[in-house]
Amino acid sequence: MPAHTVASLVGITYGPGGQMSFTALHPELGRIDATLADLGQGLEWENVYRTRPRIWLTCPECGHGVHAKLSPRRTRYFAHDPGRSPDCQLSVESADHHLLKLVLAEAIRRAGWSADLEVPAPDGAWRADVMATSPTSDEDRMAWEAQLSPITDDDIQMRTDRYAADDIDVCWVSSRDRVPWLCTVPAIAVNPASPPAAAERWMVHDGLVRFDYARGGWVQVDDVTLATFVRWVLGDGLVFHAIGRRYRRIHLPGSNATTRRSASWTTQRSIDAEAEHEAMRQQQEAAKRAREARAREAEERRKQAEARRKQAERERQREEEERRRAEAEERHRLFMIEMERQRAVREAERREQQRKQQEQARQEELARLERDRQEQAAAQQWWSGVSAAQLTELLDHVARLSMTERTSRALLRSDEGDRDFAYGIPVYTGRHLYGVIRPCPHSLGRLPTSSRIFVRNAREKALITATGLVNADLVTHFDLPDHEQTTLL
């Protein structure tokens, strides 16, 4: 039932988020309860309702001021004064929650027990929505919790454990259709009545079961009122029982549907019936196992006779196999000797091949080093005929040509010959290679493919193109004079 509908039926109106509770702290008498005729302290309602001067009442949860109020249907409660703390748990409870607490308190009192609302633990470990106290002993108490908001199994178990630490039983009650934690802790789900305040007309629709021996399983009970359920629990007529693993499929009355429950409220008689049925089932299974054991023994005797017959045949075959195995082992021994001889021959051949390869690699490395030495000597001679002024002159011509062709000045990153560019000097426009200045004719094989070449004059171009290693169209000369006589290889 939606919260605004419940509120209108009960006749309680308050602002968003809720601002009401059923208990308050009196400055002289202490805790008073609006659901009790004498407020629990021998005090008339008129002594706190619209009195002048006003009695200063406070919320037992947050300490904020509260004042006595009557709903249009004459329900007594305490409302928070303006400016309350948003963290007060009593003030943010929904109308459904307040209604269920009233109904639980009424059911407890009908059972002959006293019911106190919103009772906190001395150390603050818990706060019971409704605390039921036995008429014969103040030590015999049971907490009843209205739980409508979502909560995890771990959280509700932790809250239940806090009650258990103080030797207090608890039952959680929800009026929601689906209660996922119903088996986690002692709990029931109820259907609200109309009008909602009539506790004897609220029905328990989940969390209560009985054992049907003929069916061999549990059946859900849905024809018990909340008031009756509370009376049975407080009278020790019901127990929260952990259902046996084989019996957790619960039959729903009036249909073939089932649900699963690992624990539920039930009577000791049903618990005994489950135990009796389980004992009967175990006896039947034991008898079945005995029959199966006798059948296995007979089959074992037959197998043993067959095994003896086969054993004799196996002995004969074993002797034959031993003879063949000895022959096979001798053949294998001779085969392994031959394989070892061939392996030794292959190993010798492999080592000789390895020695030849190492010798070839050494000769190739010596040849490479000799080629590098010759190329370096040729490069030194190639560059010895060019002075610094001549190199600067050539670089200036290349720079002007790059400005014409690419509108970007060609620059060198080093003024020394680079082995990877045939001991020439690479020049770049931005990040891109523009060309190579005066690569050595003896090392043109090292030059990157399609590299452009710049030389001083036609004589140098002729020396480079004569090698046949570069395209003459890729060689540019600037017709610069030699100035000095040089010997070029």
UniProtKB/TrEMBL annotation:
Pfam families assigned to the protein according to its UniProt record, in alphabetical order: CoiA_nuc
Annotated segments matching region Disordered: 275-328, 348-369
Residue ranges of every copy of the Competence protein CoiA nuclease-like domain listed in the record: 93-178
Superkingdom field: Bacteria
InterPro entries linked to this entry: CoiA_nuc (IPR010330)
Name of this protein: Competence protein CoiA nuclease-like domain-containing protein
